Amino acid sequence: MGDETGAAQDCVWEVDGLRLAGRAWGPRDGTPVLALHGWMDHADSFQELAPRLAGCRVVALDLSGQGLSGHRAAHATYNIWDDLPQIAELLDLLGWQDCVLLGHSRGANIAGLFAAAQPGRVRALIALDSLVPEPDPDETIVTTLTAFIEQTRKQKARPPRLFPSTEAYIERRTAQGNARRTSEALAERALAPHPDGVSLRGDPRLFARSAVKLKQADVEAVLRAWRCPVLNIWATEGIKSKRPVLAQLAARAGELVMTYETAELAGDHHFHLEPGAAGQIAEAVLAFLDRHGCR
After folding, report:
1. Domain boundaries, the chain
2. Tens-place pLDDT, residues 227-249
């Protein structure tokens, strides 16, 4: 059971007829924290950070189509806003009127959209190595829709990715730039047994383009809509170091968000899976929540 010892509890919910899975840490009466993972990750992304958030009840969700959660129906999509109604429903099932939203990467972007659309349900927003969806200044709605249709059809027809062994999956992630420790930590929940080795659980449709890309005005509207305090923690070797537009967004957030604090910690994009960095993140998060009366 999830308790003060750091042990995790496996959780399952049903939302809109879809099985959602997750993990929970901490006392049931602790500060409610809903944790949202990055693209093609899952709830175990928070296995180092969540137990360090003392006094918090951290529920980490496997977003639909990832981890142990079910895949969406054949007619459905995985646009970033498709998760928002499911998050609202999950908060209802948990009995949480509001919560702290903790998001990493794509999960931070989803959390940011939710905090803008449902400000009364978010008492604080913690964004790890991302903040909001990147605006696309050049691509037109027509080219985006074309790619969305073609890629969705292609990915829908693609069988799950196979690996001859768990080690092969770990080596693949490592070759793509993840630390070996990160790759090992994420392997179990990302893979399913297969007669030819292991298969990737993630829905291939997650690789397809979104139907719409937000523009700069849309992103700024999201930033202006936040009513909760925001803590944005970046990794020194994370995605901001590779995408200058994210540095620009962080600077814009400092101008538009009522209460915006930012920090940078040593590590790569999955720094929250490194014990040392996870301890630093937890310390910063707890101090932030206390400073703003969110616990």
Report:
1. 9-135+215-291
2. 999 999 999 999 998 898 999 99
What's the CA gap between 153 and 148, in Å, rounded? 8
**CA 276/CA 243 separation, integer angstroms:** 25
161, two tokens:
């990715």
Tell me which DSSP letter residue 227 carries: -
Which residues have CB under 8 Å from 82's CB, separation 6+? 72, 76
Q: Which two tokens stand for residue 136?
A: 């696309």
Residues 180, 174: Cα–Cα separation, whole Å: 6
Residue ranges of the alpha helices (H) in 21-104? 84-94
Q: How do residues 129-154 score in pLDDT, each as one tens digit?
A: 999 999 988 888 999 999 999 999 99
Instruction: Say how far apart CA 133 and CA 123 lie, in whole Å.
Output: 21
d(CA 290, CA 186): 31
DSSP secondary structure string for all residues of 101-136: EEEETHHHHHHHHHHHH-GGGEEEEEEES--SPPP-
Rounded mean pLDDT, 153-175: 95
Q: pLDDT digit string (tens) for 78-90? A: 999 999 999 999 9
Tokens of 19: 């099985």
Q: Where are the alpha helices (DSSP H) in the chain?
A: 84-94, 106-117, 141-157, 166-175, 180-190, 216-225, 244-256, 275-291
| Cα 68 versus chain centre, distance | 15
CA atoms of 94 and 73, how far apart (whole Å): 24
In words, the CATH class of domain 9-135+215-291 is alpha beta
Look up the pTM and report it: 0.96
